[in-house]
Amino acid sequence: MASLESLRSVSIGEYLPTGSVVHRIDARAKLLISLILGVAIFAANGYLVNLALVLLLVAFLKLARLSPRFVASTVKPALPLILLLTLMQLLFYGEGPAGSTVYLRWGALVISSAGVRMVVISLLRFGGLLALVSLLTNTTTTSALHHGVEWWLRPLTAVGLPGHELGMVMAIALRFLPILGEELEAISHAQAARTLVAERRSRWQFIRRARRTANLIVPLFVSTLRHADEMAFAMQARCYQGGRGRTQLNVRRWQVLDTLSLALAVIILMTVLILHRLPLP
Amino acid sequence: MTEHGRIRRVIIAGLLLALTLLLALIPGIGFIPVPTPAGNATIVHIPAIIGGILEGSLVGLVIGLGFGFASLMRATIPAFKDPLVAILPRLFIGLVSAWVFSGFYHASKRTLMAGLTILVVVALVVVALLTGASPGALGWLQGLSETTAGSAAFTWWQGGLIALIMVGLAAGLMVWLQNEDRGIVATALATAVGSLTNTVLVLGMATLRGYFTAGMSLVIALAQGIPEMIVSVVVVVAVVAAVRQFGRRKARL
Questions:
Q1: The predicted structure's pLDDT at residue A203
Q2: How many angstroms from the chain centroid is the CA of residue B115?
Q3: Chain A 46-75, residues with CB within 8 Å of chain B CB atoms
Q4: Pick from B7, B62, B230: which is nearest to A236 by CB?
């Protein structure tokens, strides 16, 4: 039953109004910045550069008055799994390309410098992405995020794709993530009361695991899809009719702050790309 | 489509996307441990299939995109850190399911029988060619089977067995179609094909990009793709039948 408590800690998508300077950046700019920094995280391929990026993002978290400890705590439920996979990756990576040193060899298990490098860099990348995602979603309201995505998707409308609707899909998904998490928790409690708990079992009892997972998933899907009809009526009753002729109550103007932060992100990406060519560790 | 239907489509896409993220992000829910090298059978592709079946290919595509991103974000092995492996193949799950479902659901019985017959004949011809009776003209096909299965083309009795199994499956499908609600059959088939799309395209891409060897992919496909397919069919048929009120399952759930 302890696993059920983890459901509530899905903090992605939760807006935390701390009123920092990061909160004041335009959502459109923030989306583009996240994309640029995401590319930078994946482009960085060395201990130093990746570590610097993580530290930089943690500094940005501080700037946004978010607690890095809180952000890190959201992965706590997954920690054993992450550690196990990391260990497996380390042990089964093999010798790697020529030129990498082998630290330890025991039968098929090899710890090589290439393996260590890959594991450390993946963990740093993971940390960077975690900070980045929370930096975006914890400082932006879902409606601002929605408008931002819609604005960027506007060119799609020209080729006949529903830009506004795609933005709406994303907004609904982010808004409902915690709600559905709670719903899943309620269903697992209800099924537990009927003694249909999805307890931890070994890999070999696959069928039993699958059946117990289905006991949770099927009611979750059915109740979710039933909500959809009611919600469609509710939105129609409030005269929602898609993107046609829709205007915004508060029109957000592009400001100097947005340009500056965007420029900073571009500078970070360029730096990473330049450092990529240098022989850093 | 009515105004209500249009709005509902947007909402369903959004809710299923949220479910995808939920299944992908909460540890222990979206993955069922199985004894294979990759370790887990996924059920995270199920929302994409349901979206494709209920609301059409565009919704399936959008949810598949979300699945791809989620998979890229939580990737713990290097293969899935590659957008070409993590995202691109996932776009096709919902698309393929939507096409198979609507093709099957709306086709007339005669078209279905004809299509099934053609499919079986083509498959039988391929098996016959692979059975080794005719080297030369279609040697490349044999070469293909050599690289993927790691052995020469089938012997005559293996070929015969495969042909028998295929004819049996086709006959079973026909009988099933006669007796069961069309919606349920179409849902089950669309789900099976959608799940296979995920397995084949992802592993194929991982092999092409050099993360897995062909043999490794084949083992994962058999040991993991099949359980994934069975679980998805069970879940999706239950969900879609309940939502769309198909067949005899009306009173249940």
A1: 54
A2: 19
A3: none
A4: B7
